[in-house]
Each structure stands twice: as structure tokens, then as C-alpha cells.
Specification:
This protein is low in regular secondary structure. 8% of the residues lie in helices and 7% in strands. The chain is built from one helix and four strands; from the N terminus they run H-E-E-E-E. The longest helix is centred in the N-terminal third of the chain and has 17 residues, at 4-20. It is elongated, with a radius of gyration of 21 Å.
């Protein structure tokens, strides 16, 4: 026979146990899939169709958004730390001041996107298309931009310390006043690039 104190203690322990469980999940093909984050009507998951979405200040830490269509999206001050945007489309998107430390975005498209002041330190941007992107004052310290297209990109005042531009296209890019300490450009196209080193 349970006493009232025992019943109350059991209720508290049950509540603590339930609070420790992971977020609700649904079962799809026998696999538990985490609940989908929905912000302003945008379902945020792989291959999401969220063109022109308002995601200002959104918390997208570690979110898997590979292949998502975020063209023209407003992501100012969003937190994309360690998110996966591999193959995603962000053409014309505004990521001003976003936190995207350790972003995984190989093959993503950022054509004419605004990335002013974004933190992309240690990010993986190999084979990304950043043609005409505005990266003024961005931090790309130790980022990997191998084979990335930065044709006409603006990187004025950007922090590019230890960034790697193996075989990248920096034709007509602007790197004036950028920090280039230990930055490497092997086999990169530097034709018409302002502020690029002349000894590569």
C-alpha cells in the first residue's frame, strides 16, 4: 500500500525521468526521426523549400538542412553553428552577422548572398559557389574553400587567417585590407583580384 509521501515521490521521479527523455520523435520506416522545427511556416529539414523565408535570429545549431532551398531567405543574426547546408541553395540570401562557426556547406550556392560580418571560422565550403557574394568583414579563419567559386566576391576587411583556397576561383574578387596571415592560394585563379597576394 502506497503512502501519500511515496506516491508524491514517485510522481516527482517520473516527471524527472520524462524530462530527461530526448525530444519527441516520429517513427519513419522503423527509424526515429526528431520533430521538425517550424519557423514562420518554414519546415526546417533536409531539402526544405523555404525560399524567401524569414529566419532572422533563428536558432539552427547543428540543424541538418542539406539540399534546402533558402534562396532569398532572411537569416540575419541566425545561429547556424555546426549546421549542415551541403548542396543547399542560398542565392541572394541575407546572412548578415550570422554565427556559422564550423558550418558544413560543401557544394552550397551563395551567389550574390550578403554574408557581411558572418562568422564562418573553421567552416567547410569546398566547391561552394559564392560568385558575387558580399563577405565584408566576415571571419573565415581556418575555413576550407578548396575549389570554391568566389568570382567577383567582396572580402574587404575579412579575416582569412589560415584559410585554404586550393584551386579556388578568385577572379575579380576584392580582398583589400583582408587579414591573410598563413592563408594559402595554391593553384587558385587570382586574375584581376584586388588585394590578393602576387607570389602564388
Amino acid at each position: 500500500m502506497r503512502t501519500p509521501a511515496c506516491t508524491a515521490a514517485l510522481a516527482v521521479l517520473t516527471a524527472l525521468w520524462l524530462a530527461a527523455l530526448p525530444a519527441p520523435a516520429q517513427i519513419v520506416n522503423g527509424v526515429a526521426v526528431p520533430e521538425v522545427t517550424i519557423i514562420n511556416g518554414c519546415h526546417l529539414w533536409p531539402y526544405a523549400q523555404c525560399a524567401n523565408a524569414d529566419l532572422r535570429g533563428a536558432n539552427l545549431v547543428g540543424k541538418d538542412l542539406h539540399g534546402a532551398d533558402l534562396r532569398g531567405a532572411r537569416l540575419m543574426r541566425a545561429n547556424l553553428r555546426s549546421a549542415n547546408l551541403a548542396g543547399a541553395l542560398l542565392d541572394g540570401a541575407d546572412l548578415t552577422g550570422a554565427m556559422a562557426y564550423s558550418l558544413n556547406a560543401p557544394g552550397a550556392s551563395f551567389r550574390k548572398a550578403v554574408l557581411a560580418g558572418i562568422n564562418l571560422e573553421t567552416s567547410r565550403l569546398m566547391r561552394a559557389d559564392m560568385e558575387g557574394a558580399d563577405l565584408r568583414g566576415a571571419s573565415l579563419e581556418a575555413a576550407r574553400l578548396n575549389l570554391t567559386n568566389l568570382d567577383g566576391a567582396v572580402l574587404i576587411d575579412a579575416d582569412l587567417q589560415e584559410a585554404k583556397f586550393w584551386g579556388s576561383n578568385l577572379k575579380n574578387a576584392n580582398l583589400e585590407r583582408a587579414i591573410l596571415r598563413f592563408t594559402i592560394f595554391p593553384d587558385a585563379n587570382l586574375e584581376g583580384c584586388k588585394g590578393c597576394p602576387t607570389d602564388w
